[in-house]
Design brief:
mainly beta
């Protein structure tokens, strides 16, 4: 596999993390969601001619935090004829106070393990600095600058800003999905769409989607990148309960569609 192919898959999985990891909101609706992944567009010379896959995402309330599991199976077809099979698991737990975070990643490519990451992160206070300590693939400490947020806290802030009528947000976010997952995330929030009424058939009829929503655009920048360009971008619609659909991930040379195909609520715990 070429270095470009390896980078493409790594970037794609990083975006897949953030998309479902962003399915958290102020209402904190425990749920299971499934998405179908497909290639939307590809520029000539991108090296990508096809992509398909599935992603299953579960979000569970553990009383003191949120447990999230993302399982993705994906096939990427390349112009030279190769097909790369990827299986990826990302499991996290984030405290409801936004200060503690645990993460574990396992990535298989064509049946062989290519990456395993495990660790935990702690912020001194909300809005304060902190550190992430990795135990796999090897011991490593990553400094988290002042203002760093974890994914659930970031999403709750974003939806709170949207509900207040604000249209932009920029924060540093750490999710642990890769060895360089500390990123600057720039968010643009569109005009509120009222809740749809009387929808029949398909996902539109799901009561969890009968909510107000905002079209949103997120751009992800690697810390210290000198070209000023985002590593990738995501366009999607956020509902006020935090669930997302109409997801498109843009990598510059190609775009990927993630279509919501199944959505079910999970029971809340008796805390």
């Amino acid at each position: 596999m070429s270095n470009r192919s390896a980078f493409t898959i790594s970037a794609l999985l990083a975006a897949i993390v953030f998309c479902p990891a962003s399915l958290l909101a102020a209402d904190l609706v425990p749920h299971v969601a499934e998405y179908a992944l497909s290639l939307k567009t590809a520029k000539q010379g991108s090296g990508v001619v096809g992509l398909k896959g599935t992603m299953k995402f579960s979000f569970t309330d553990t009383c003191d935090g949120w447990a999230i599991e993302n399982k993705t199976v994906m096939s990427m077809m390349q112009a030279e004829g190769d097909e790369i099979q990827t299986r990826w698991s990302f499991v996290t737990w984030e405290a409801k106070d936004g200060r503690n975070y645990r993460f574990r990643v396992l990535s298989l490519r064509d049946g062989e393990k290519v990456e395993e990451i495990e660790g935990r992160a702690l912020l001194e206070a909300n809005g304060g600095s902190g550190q992430a300590v990795l135990t796999r693939p090897e011991s490593q400490t990553i400094r988290l600058p002042k203002g760093t947020m974890f994914p659930a806290a970031h999403t709750k802030l974003m939806l709170s800003e949207a509900a207040s009528g604000r249209t932009s947000l920029q924060r540093t976010v750490f999710d642990g999905s890769s060895l360089d997952s500390l990123q600057e995330v720039s968010v643009q929030i569109g005009k509120l769409k009222p809740a749809s009424k009387g929808a029949v058939g398909g996902m539109a009829a799901n009561p969890l989607l009968a909510r107000p929503s905002w079209p949103s655009h997120l751009a992800f920048f690697k810390i210290g990148a000198k070209d000023g360009l985002p590593a990738y971008e995501i366009s999607l619609r956020y509902f006020d309960n935090g669930i997302a659909d109409e997801v498109t991930e843009d990598y510059g040379n190609f775009t990927v569609r993630s279509e919501l195909t199944k959505l079910e609520p999970l029971p809340r715990p008796d805390c």
